[in-house]
Structure formats: structure tokens, C-alpha cells
Amino acid sequence: MPDVVTLDDIMAARDRIGDQVRITPFQGSPSLSQIAGGPVWLKCEYRQMTGAFKLRGATNAVARVGNVAGVTTASTGNHGRALAHAARAKGIPAIICVSRLVPQNKLDAIAALGAEARVIGESQDEAFHEAIRLQREDGFALIPPFDHPDVIAGQGTLGLEILDQIPDAATIAVPLSGGGLLAGVAMAAKAQNPDIRIIGISMERGAAMSASLAAGRPVEIPELPTLADSLGGGIGLKNRLTFPMVRDLMDDLILLSEDQIAAGICQLSSEGHFVEGAAAVGAGAVLSRQLNAKDGPLVLILSGENIDPFRHAEIIQAIP
After folding, report:
1. CB 61 within 8 A of CB 154
2. Rounded CA gap, 34 and 160, in Å?
């Protein structure tokens, strides 16, 4: 695999997947704009066909696999659902390896697309070992959720789309987990506007990329339950692409408490956006005054909607 992902790779991915993914809408947020001191735009990527941005990277990667027994991955849910969708479209089997922390609604969504959701262990790292075994022993193509050039290039198409829609964007706030989304969006955006700021946002509980950046190398940390469950999991001790890209392209990192994530969910719900915790971190950062739009238009990526409806209702009811 190549050691870098370029703007040309991302533009090629856009051509490759253009008829298989949606151009998602954007919407202004008057309430968040008032708090942020400038225009805040919501990029509604949760309205993608599988309910999350992950469809971009998975579709691009599956389009480039050859003759294989099937495809596999380890996932906190959204990448697995996207890979299941892309595999069904190509007519090949998919086995999605997940940990016991993945919510049942996400397992059901994977199964509904004709893939097997195989529950392995207590963390995404443990689930990944099973995906590696399927690659080694059964001839499956392993498509990781983030540290893969075709996945990163596919996610980068979202960066191209944001600047097509909001060309004067000064800052893009990106939910940060393994770094595939941030790496792709940052590469696409900064290649066109080197002055644009890319802010990663994650949770305080079990943010592996944050711990790795602090250590100067990929490290393992315990995976903990969090409202932003899609941001859980490690980045891989042998991470080749997303760690250095995030390190070199991200301008700042914000970590949120569980209460701040819940506040983001509630605020977006009040504006008609039913999203999961990972998608609400940008709003949570604005509400907690850690992120503003004083330097120009701020874009918040609402990355996914795959939250259990009963859990969403509990969160809304718990906020005074």
C-alpha cells in the first residue's frame, strides 16, 4: 500500500463512487452561530444512505478489491454497516467483526444488509484479530475502518464536498477516532486552502488517538463505554497512515466530557437533527465554549445517526 494519500487519490475516489453515495445537505444553525460568534454550518452527513460518512470510504475500498472470497473488517458499527452495504452492491459476502461494546441496533443494521456481525471480545482491537484471521485463513479482503489508503481517500471526498458547498469555510470540526475521516477531510481541504483550520473533537473517555499523539506514537488504551461510541477503539500499534496524517494536518484537538456530548445531542435534536454522540461532538464543543467561529464560517460534520432511539430519548429526557 502507498505511504501517503494525495489530493489526486481523493479526486479519483470522488469519480469512482459518485453514483453510489449521496451529496449530503448542509444547514445553518442560528443558535450555535450566536454562541460561536459567527456562522456555523452543519454538514448533514448522517443523511448518507447507511446513516454515516463511512459509506464513502467503504465503497471506494470495495470498488478496488479483486477476486476475493469476501470482505471483512473490525468496526464499532458504522464502518461495518457501510462495508456490508458496499459488499452487497458488489455481490460478495461480508463478515463484520465487532466487540461486545457495539450497540444492538448497529448489529441489527449490519445483519439487515445480508452480512454477518461476528461478536468477538471486549474491544475493537480484539475484534480486529478475528478479521485478520479471516484474511489469512479464508481469503477475505481486509478493509480496516480507517488506516487504509482507499478508505481515507473515500472519506476525503467529504472534504471536497464541504468546500464545494461552503467555499469560504475557515474551520472544519471533525469527529476524531481512528483518524480516517479527519485525515481525508484535512488532506482534501488543506490542499485547496492551506489556511483552513481542522479541529479534531473526541471524548475524554478512551480517546486512543489523543493518547497516541501525546505519546508521540500509537499506543493502546482501555476502550471505555461512552455516548460517542462510534469514536471508540484503538488506532492500531502498526498504524501507518492516519496517525502521521492526523499529527501533521490537525490544528487542534478538543476532548469532551459525557455531559458535554449529551448537551450536543440535545441541542441538535432541538434543531431537528437526530444524531449519535459522535456526530454531536462539534455542537458540544461550541456549547462548552471550546470552539468558535470568530475567524470565519465554522463547519460541524454531523457524521452519523446510528443511535438507539430509546437511548436517544433517555439522553433528551435527562437534560433539564
Report:
1. yes
2. 27
Number of H helices, E strands in the chain: 13, 10
Q: What is the DSSP track for 99-147?
A: -TTS-HHHHHHHHHTT-EEEE-SSSHHHHHHHHHHHHHHH-EEE--SSS
Map out the domains of the chain with their CATH numbers.
7-53+148-318 (3.40.50.1100), 54-142 (3.40.50.1100)
> Can you give the pTM of this predicted structure?
0.94
What integer is the mean pLDDT of 9-15? Answer: 98
pLDDT digits (tens, 9 = 90+) for 209-261: 999 999 999 999 998 999 999 898 889 999 999 999 999 999 999 999 999 99
How far apart, in whole angstroms, are the C-alpha atoms of residue 181 and residue 142?
18
Secondary structure letter of residue 76 according to DSSP:
S
Give the DSSP letter of residue 196: -
The three three-digit cell numbers of residue 175, written as one number: 469527529
Contact (Cβ atoms closer than 8 angstroms) between residue 95 and residue 134:
yes
β-strands 252-256, 197-203 pairing = parallel
262-281 pLDDT tens trace = 999 999 999 999 999 999 99
